[in-house]
Structure formats: structure tokens, C-alpha cells
Amino acid sequence: xxxxxxxxxxxxxxxxxxxxxxxxxxxxxxxxxxxxxxxxxxxxxxxxxxxxxxxxxxxxxxxxxxxxxxxxxxxxxxxxxxxxxxxxxxxxxxxxxxxxxxxxxxxxxxxxxxxxxxxxxxxxxxxxxxxxxxxxxxxxxxxxxxxxxxxxxxxxxxxxxxxxxxxxxxxxxxxxxxxxxxxxxxxxxxxxxxxxxxxxxxxxxxxxxxxxx
Amino acid sequence: xxxxxxxxxxxxxxxxxxxxxxxxxxxxxxxxxxxxxxxxxxxxxxxxxxxxxxxxxxxxxxxxxxxxxxxxxxxxxxxxxxxxxxxxxxxxxxxxxxxxxxxxxxxxxxxxxxxxxxxxxxxxxxxxxxxxxxxxxxxxxxxxxxxxxxxxxxxxxxxxxxxxxxxxxxxxxxxxxxxxxxxxxxxxxxxxxxxxxxxxxxxxxxxxxxxxxxxxxxxxxxxxxxxxxxxxxxxx
Lengths: 213, 236
Known about the structure:
Order of helices and strands of chain A: EEEHEEHEHHHEHEE
Shape of chain A: globular
Helix content of chain A: 25-40%
Strand order of the largest sheet of chain B: 2-3-1-4
Oligomer: heterodimer
Distance between the termini of chain A: 21 Å
Structural class of chain B: alpha+beta
Helix content of chain B: 55-70%
Number of strands of chain A: 9
Order of helices and strands of chain B: EHEHEHEHHHHH
Shape of chain B: rod-shaped
């Protein structure tokens, strides 16, 4: 489903990724680990065409992302949900509106939005807070809203960049359990983290340490 | 306007000229002055300076026709037209009217047209710049929102269209305000009778007609679109 083939990335003379190679199959749960600055975020950004590799090939469902047209990038991003460490929620919109935004950008309106958003908010246990604004929520709740928004388009892959980076241990566990539950339903997950405690007890999850690249 | 007749002009010529003048739409009164009555006319006009006519007899003065026009009919083009037609009539020696004023009016009209056109161009560019700056500010204010929208799969058009709508709302509001402002000034001019004063200088105050209002609206819409397009193009 996803292939990184001899991928290099540099900023000026500083290479953050050197000969990165890995493959992700459908339905897998992948942890990308490595120390700060190892290039975890860069690798994820390349998957949504926010960054381009200096050398090498990245493939998503057979499509080479190196040569993707600018006009096709939004359609690629609709197939990949992204959860950011800093949530990236719109403070002027309610929880419901933030999640609905994921569908609105795809041109979906009306009852489908109400149905899908409500279902997801129930799944992340935030339905009762649907009319509240992000700033009135805790960090863990904001991250759950961000997960719901990332999953509302029913993406094939969920990318999570340090989703628990700003959260305490207990809340981190809740977030990981939510992501895991969606993975159990078939969504491929790639989660970048430097926190090795998250990985323990994740059973069938695969770990890719990019420090070695 | 004064039409001086040739010394040898016979009564038939005089009659033809007078008939022609009276047939012109816009003539209020046309009066014929023979040699004697032209002397009287001159003496009446000169008042205290009539001593200059001491050695001049009526036979030295030409006969003439004095024409008064209706105020509503007077315009520079109208007077020029009458002047040329009278000049070509048989028995007419000279047609006199204050051409200097007419030239000044024509110059003034040309000047106002040129200044108006330059002002229009400047204001049009300014309106585009204002729309451009307003949308640029909106983009800067919404930069993080735009970034988030892009990350979740929004196309450039999805982000641009609300900006175009905002730009157009601004343009239409500006149009309404400016037309209302012009109408208020027009009404003030009419209320205080400035139009009568300006008519004396052959300047007629009129309000924009529907096609002109439509043109102003079109210009406002175009400037809104142009301003939004330029600013959004710079950021997308």
C-alpha cells in the first residue's frame, strides 16, 4: 500500500533521511520511531505531499508521490487522515463543525455530515461536547476531535505525528486505544513517536526505527 | 446674437433673414433695427459715452437684427450651428455673438472630460488596490485556517471562493454607498438651486441614468474580482 524506496531528504547540507526503505501493507499498525530530528515528521509529511524527497521514490497505492500534480494533492490528502501533535483545530468552529470540515472540503453536505460526524463523535466519546469550542476542551479531548476529523472522510490510512506528545500518560493511553480501535476496523495506521512506552503492549504493531536511516 | 446686414441688402433679403430666424426653434425674440433705430440703440447702450457718436450719422451705421434665445435652448453647439447657418444667408454681413465664452466653455468641457477620465482611471486602480489589500489582510488573518484546510484536502478553489464572495460583497457595498453619496450631492445641488446657476454657464446637472448606474456596478464588480484574484494569486 505504501512504499518508501531509497528515500533521501535534506535541508541544505543537512540530510534528515538517508536511504529510507520500508513498506506498509493494508490494515497494518506501524510505529515510526527515532530520536528528535531523526525525520519522523518529514517522512509523514512526504506521504501527504507536504514535502518532496531529494532522491528516491514514495508510492501510495501505486501512485508515485514524487511526480504528483499540484491539483491532485487535495484528493490524495482526502485518502489520508492526519493527526498532528498540536491538534490543528479551528478555534472559531465548534467540535461538530471542526469534524464536519473534513467532509465539507470534499463537497459533502447535509444529512450525511450529521450522521457521520455524530457517529465519530460518539466513537471518541465527545458527542456531548459537540457544540463546545476547542479552546474550552482539555488537550486529550482536542486530540480526540482531531482524530475524529482525520477519520471522518473514511481514509485508507491514518497518519499520526506524535499524537500524544502534549498529553499525560493516562490520556495518551486513551488516545492510543481509540486509534487502535479504528485500526482493528481496518484502517492502516502509521504513528510517529519517540515515546517507546507507547509501543509496549501493542501486540501485532510493527516498529520502524528511522534513526538507522 | 447680432446679425449685421449688408448696406445694399434689400427688403426681400431682410424679410427672408427674419423669417429664417423666427423659424428657428429656440428663438425667443428677433427684432430688426434699421439705420435710425440702430443709432438709438447705440446711444441707449453707450449712455454717458454717447458723445463719441457726435460726428457719426445713422447712414454710417449698419442695419441689424437682434436675436434673443430661450434660456432652455442655449448650448454651445446650438449657438455655433445657428451662427454658421446665419452667416451663409444672402444679405448678411456679419454675425456676432460671444464666441470667446463659447470657446471657454468648450475648453472647460474638454478639460473636465480629461480630468474626469484621469480621475476615473486613478479611482479604478485605487479600488482594485483596496480590494487587493482587504483580501490580503483576510488571507494573512486566516493563514493558519487556510493551512489546516489544505492539510485536510481542501482545493484552492474551495479556499478562494469565500474570498471572492467577501471581495464582491465589499465591492457591492462600496457601489451602494458611492451611488447613495452621489445622489445625496445631486439632491443638495437641486435643493439649493445650484443647477440654475450652472445652467447659466451651459452646464446641466443630471443624475446618472440606469445604464450608467449599471456601468458603475459592473466596474465595482470587476475591481472586486481583480483585487481578489491578484491577492489570492500571490498566496496560492
